[in-house]
Amino acid sequence: MSTTSFTVGIVGARGHTGAELIRLIAAHPNLTLGFVSSRELAGQRVADHHADWQGDLQFENLDADAVAAKGVDAVILALPNGLSAPFVTALDAARPDTVIVDLSADHRFEGSWYYGLPELTRGDYLGQKHISNPGCYATAMQLAISPLLKQLAGPPQCFGVSGYSGAGTTASDKNNPELLRDNLMPYALTNHVHEREVTAHLRVPVEFMPHVAPHFRGITMTVNLWLNETVKREDVIALYQAYYANEALIEVLDEAPWVSRIAGRHGVQIGGFDVAPGGKRVVVVATLDNLLKGAATQAMQNLNLALGLDELASIPH
Prior knowledge:
The protein is built from nine helices and 14 strands. It has helices at about 15-25, 65-70, 85-95, 120, 135-145, 175-180, 195-200, 235-245, 290-305; strands spanning about 5-10, 30-35, 60, 75, 100, 115, 130, 155-165, 185, 205-215, 220-225, 250, 270-275, 280-290. Helix 1 (about 15-25) crosses helix 9 and helix 5 (about 135-145) packs parallel to helix 7 (about 195-200).
């Protein structure tokens, strides 16, 4: 095990994903928090908000230049879409060797950034300092589709349901428990950013219909796949088992996974594997925790990879 130590800063630490990142860094043998930036919590002790963190480190309200001046080894940007550019520019100017992991969608379509879905793109990592973390829905879709990608006869149709933590902490209809009670709320039913993201990275058109449900965390992704040749259910299961045989965070099940069983866990479950009469239509179900494998856990995998550490360091599996 490496004894090298690295400092990490988090920008946008107040949100649900920021809390998970702090927990993962607190448990990491090689990482320590250099700073945590949050406008709303500035001046308050991190330990007062996160039982996993000990010490007197305080939240700070840092602009891009102040973040760059901290001189940490890596920065995780946990900001809403459209806000990362000033921080990337300042970090590149002040310390271009800083590893930047961006959790927003701002750089997922840029070829100069490494797109970090390790189970599928690990072989594309060539030492890039700029890492774009995939979207939560996009992670579930790509992991569910990829083993059958070469056999597709048409666009996969993806019906996604997320817990309301996926809508962030800013108040809206999509994270209002009262409006969601006994409800399933469809939204952005065409051209969702994650639809465009998966289409770009799998290089096939994908159709995605997102919904938000009353549970707090976890995604269920049901994917309908039309194939160009007939298959048997047992062969599909064997294909997925072989494809993910060496992936500690992916579990292939016979039955369809339940979102309640993945909440709070760091991996992905893929199962169901129903083959329709005729053998050319397969339905696959994937579940993951949108705050963990859909965000913080994946960011930690990417950070570990970039820093030359065990990819699963601090990640329970």
